[in-house]
Amino acid sequence: MAETTFYNLVENLETYLEYQRDEGVQRLEVDRAVLTALAKEPEAVPVPPGELAGVEAAPIPSEFKSLEEITAHVSACRNCPLCQTRTNTVPGEGNADAPDIMFIGEGPGADEDAQGRPFVGKAGQLLTKMIDAMGYSREEVFIANVVKCRPPNNRTPLPEEMEACLPYLWQQVGLIKPRVIVGLGATAIKGLLGKTAGITRLRGTWQEYGGIRLMPTFHPSYLLRDPSKKKEVWQDLQLVLKELGKEPPPRKK
Ligand code: URA
Question: Fold for domain 65-242?
Fold first, then answer.
């Protein structure tokens, strides 16, 4: 089975089960063979020789003076194995001068890796529409990710990859000083808040990151797979607008 399918399967299954639980479903029929397979100790997967070649964990300065310094540091970063497979680093882009909103996703995909820009693929087009529906342009907000390099086959970033990269995001947020952060999807929220509660529980509830109010919501990729969840995301984005003292603009025909 391809790695990407496996990771997406786990993510979809997790979100689906959380959703069922939150809807009050108490019982699910599961085939005994599935339970037996799940109960087995997973076999340790050996790290293929050469996987860590070129990875040199180097300390990330704790006080960057500017976003440009962070971007330069990120582009030379070799702190985790994602550096071996990236084409471009994707530090983030947009209004870095105290924008109303900073959107934070999980990590670059193929299009983002090719262009070095966040959210420019299909999910990015949907994010752009969401930003537009809120009455902003992409240039007026800041868009970044928890990890700055593409995980191979678009798999979910591993906890240790997020941990290695998060000092950059933390300092980006400190320099950019957005009024509100919107966290996109389960993985970004786990990385940002370290919470085990799932996205279906946390979405629509105010959280905090670095002293800034953070609204978790579903990831645009999830909305592409299940457009029925757009309603919930729009509710979350309306809470963000309310926090900013803004009204959504009239809908375009
Ligand atoms: N998904 C993300 O989480 N980030 C991107 O930049 C693109 C897709």
Answer: Uracil-DNA Glycosylase, subunit E (3.40.470)
The DSSP 8-state label assigned to residue 40 in this structure reads S
Residue among 82, 89, 106, 219 whose CB has most ligand 1 atoms within 8 A, to mutate: 106
pLDDT on residue 46: 58
The token pair at 76 is 């030379």
Q: Compute the half-sphere exposure of residue 138: CA atoms within 13 Å on the CB side of its CA.
A: 14
* Pocket mutation for ligand 1, best pick of 93, 112, 141 (most atoms within 8 Å of C-beta): 112
DSSP bridge partners of 142: 94, 102
Residue 119 scores a pLDDT above 60 = yes
Residue carrying structure tokens 């550096």: 83
The H or E element containing residue 214 is: strand 212-217
pLDDT exceeds 50 at position 81: yes
Relative orientation angle of helices 185-193 and 3-22, to the nearest 10 degrees: 80
Fill in the DSSP letter of residue 151.
P
If one compares 123 and 59, the residue with the highest pLDDT of the two is: 123
Convert 7-25 to b/e letters by CB count within 10 Å (16 or more is b): bbeebeeebeebbeeeeee
Distance 143 CA to ligand 1 centre (A): 9
Question: What is the model's pLDDT at position 2?
Answer: 43
Q: What is the DSSP string of 81-110?
A: THHHH-SS----EE--SS-SEEEEES---H
pTM: 0.84
Listed by start position, the domains of the chain span 65-242
